[in-house]
Amino acid sequence: MPYDPSNDRSDIVSLHGKTALVTGAGRGIGRAVALALADEGASLALTARSEEQLAETVRMVEERGAKALAVRADLAAPAAVTVVTERTTAVFGRVDVLVNNAATVEPLGRGTDINPDAWAASFRLNVTAPAALAFALLPAMTRAGWGRVVNVSSGVVARPASMIGGNAYVATKAALEAHTLNLAAELSGTGVTANVYRPGVVDTAMQALIRDTGAGRVDESTHERFVRNHRQGRLITPEESARSLVARLAGDASGEIWDVSDPG
Predict the structure, then answer these.
(1) Are 88 and 133 a contacting pair, CB within 8 Å?
(2) Burial readout 173-183 (b: 16 or more C-beta within 10 A, e: otherwise)
């Protein structure tokens, strides 16, 4: 079951009035996290590659009475992190919560068949961009004595041999987790925390992509597992996963790997 904070919210800080930057906010987990944060009273800076999807997320956030800023960006592009951080800080002054959710599962295929440039590109989006965003925003967080960095990973890191054909994705998520835990140690005592979030098996476009186009690109057992999980109703909603993440943000835990299935 997702984390239930009902027994320990008395000693944690409210997110009301905080500013959060959520990447990959155009759909799926990113959109759901943005909406959950809006429900907690946070203002939102939102990034995504799709202008149309991003606009819809902004509309939904504003319907909840929260302020929202849209910054369309491909975070794999060299200047994107600078654009996002400069526009966000110009409007809000400081970011209190950073949720790095944007990621790609591509390229899929056997490692020997993958273009090395495509493999490296996945690292730019899945690892370098989250780290760069954190590095840009952390000085203001540490000066304020409060901040939260959460990097969305995947349970596949615990079983990296289970996704043959997804070498780049598995490697990037493992690297992201190592970066996060090392960063948490660096931030010890500052009031700023850094944690990993494994969102569970969520009904997202990434899941659909592997089901619909993964045959022949990932190994047969991997493809069958994705199809079977969907057919048997084992996927959770983005909203369920997002609630589990957001419920933990106001606590002081740092250097942890949170999983949606953990009791907290």
Answers:
(1) no
(2) bbbbbebbbeb
**Catalytic pick among 169, 197, 244, 254:** 169
Give, in words, the CATH class of 15-203+238-249.
alpha beta
User: Is the pTM value of this prediction over 0.85?
Assistant: yes
Annotated active-site residue 188? The verdict is no
pLDDT along the chain (264 residues), means of 10: 41 81 98 98 97 98 98 96 97 97 97 96 98 98 98 97 97 98 98 98 95 95 96 97 96 97 74
Three-class SS state of 264: coil
- Listed by start position, the domains of the chain span 15-203+238-249
Q: Which of 43, 173, 241, 244 is catalytic?
A: 173
Q: What is the model's pLDDT at position 14? A: 86
Task: For residues 90 and 128, give the distance between their C-alpha atoms in angstroms, rounded to a whole number.
Answer: 23
153 noted as active-site residue: yes
The answer to whether 43 is a known catalytic residue is no
List 153, 241, 244, 254, catalytic entry: 153
Alpha helices, DSSP H, located in the chain = 28-39, 51-63, 80-92, 116-123, 129-144, 167-186, 205-213, 220-231, 238-248
- Residue 258 phi/psi, 5-degree rounding, is -85, 140
